[in-house]
Amino acid sequence: MPKSIGFKKINVAVFISGNGSNFKNLIKYSLKENSKFKIGLVISNKSNIKGLNYAKKFKIEKKIINYFNIKKAEKDVLNQLKKNKIDLVCLAGFMKILSINFIKNFNGKIINIHPSLLPKYKGLNTHQRAIDNKEKYSGCTVHYVNSKIDSGKIILQKKVKILKNDTSKRLSRRVLKYEHLIYPKALNKVLSNL
């Protein structure tokens, strides 16, 4: 079936620091015919992580950036984004905080997935904090990145019920399944507005 004339997939970069399950999920989604995006680059601040195996497997260009000097690191990243003609950045378990300057350079074009129902439980250890506070629900949120941690405009959220015998690990596994569901949906939603 011929593709519609003028249809160009948006070029996305994914930033990772770990296992890369959201990265892998976005790759799979990007390969579907109705996907609005392709992944042109993966950036990591660590070289020995499982997530980078997916870059190799799916022939996606990867760059490992040393964050020892943040200014230099971010300059390198911005150069890579420009060089690879990246339109949008997806943070997927990237464990570095982006500077205000970096965010301004890519304003409105950075999104993140966070394992809580924002604005509750910004930052780390979200599941344990939700359990400790006897919340009925946890969940995940895809949001725009701004200069405050986990505070940007919400794109999509999914509630996940906290069960009586839940541990942080069990809840985390269940929430991750929903992260995989909503991240590609949120990305497509964002791309419709670009």
What does this structure look like?
36% of the residues lie in helices and 22% in strands. By secondary structure, the protein is of the alpha/beta class. It folds into 2 domains: 8-107, Formyl transferase, N-terminal domain (Rossmann fold, 3-Layer(aba) Sandwich), CATH 3.40.50; 115-183, 3-Layer(aba) Sandwich (Rossmann fold), CATH 3.40.50.170. Strands 3-2-1-4-5-6-7 form a 7-stranded mixed beta sheet, with helices on both faces. The longest helix has 25 residues, at 168-192. Mean pLDDT is 93; it is low at 1-6.
Q: Specify the number of helices.
A: 6
Mean pLDDT: 93
**Which strand order do you get reading across the main beta sheet?**
3-2-1-4-5-6-7
Number of domains: 2
Given helix and strand content, the structural type is alpha/beta
Q: What is the CA-based Rg, rounded? A: 17 Å
Helix content: 25-40%
Helix/strand order, N-terminal first: EHEHEHEHEHEEH
What is the CATH architecture annotation of the largest domain? 3-Layer(aba) Sandwich
Largest sheet: 7 strands, mixed
The oligomeric state of the chains shown is single chain
Q: If you consult CATH, what is the topology of the largest domain? A: Rossmann fold
The CATH homology group name of the largest domain: Formyl transferase, N-terminal domain
Strand residue percentage: 15-25%
What is the CA–CA distance across the termini?
26 Å
Shape descriptor reads globular
User: Unreliable runs, pLDDT <50, ≥5 residues?
Assistant: 1-6
Number of strands: 7
CATH class category label of the largest domain: Alpha Beta
